[in-house]
Amino acid sequence: MLEFAPICIYLVISLLVSLILLGVPFLFAFNSSTYPDKLSAYECGFDPFGDARSRFDIRFYLVSILFIIFDLEVTFFFPWAVSLNKIDLFGFWSMMAFLLILTIGFLYEWKRGALDWE
User: Fold this and answer.
1) pTM (2 decimals)?
2) Class of the 2-112 domain?
3) How far is it, in rounded angstroms, from Cα 118 to Cα 116?
4) What GO molecular functions are on record for this protein (predicted)?
5) How far is 114 from 108, CA to CA, in rounded Å?
């Protein structure tokens, strides 16, 4: 159990720092004379119009999903580049196969028009 002591200390310290950072604003906050317009949902001077839950074009979702996929794939490059001298040719060709699959997926999306906005 002694080997977990640093982790427990770290968790206790992080919990204390979090609680302090959450509690300090309440100590220094003061109640100013707020007016009703300040407490309204919008401060821009006009009533909201339309529904906030309107439908978005499917292209927004598609682009965001594609961004997440390719952004997460790029995160594999840094550990690979750092450990490339230890993983030798097997690691190199494994990443080349990974990049080939990624490139094929990108070309497929491009051909299908997933990246065309108009």
Assistant:
1) 0.49
2) mainly alpha
3) 6
4) NADH dehydrogenase (ubiquinone) activity; oxidoreductase activity, acting on NAD(P)H
5) 9
Spans of all domains in the chain: 2-112
Query: Residues 24, 18: contact at Cβ < 8 Å?
Result: no
Q: How confident is the model at residue 45 (pLDDT cuts 50, 70, 90)?
A: low
Q: 108: burial class by Cβ within 10 Å (0-12, 13-18, 19+)?
A: exposed
Task: Measure the CA–CA gap between 67 and 63, rounded to whole angstroms.
Answer: 6
**Cβ-Cβ contacts under 8 Å for 94 (sequence gap 6 or more):** 87
Backbone angles phi, psi at 57, to 5 degrees: -65, 140
Q: What is the mean pLDDT of residues 48-60?
A: 72
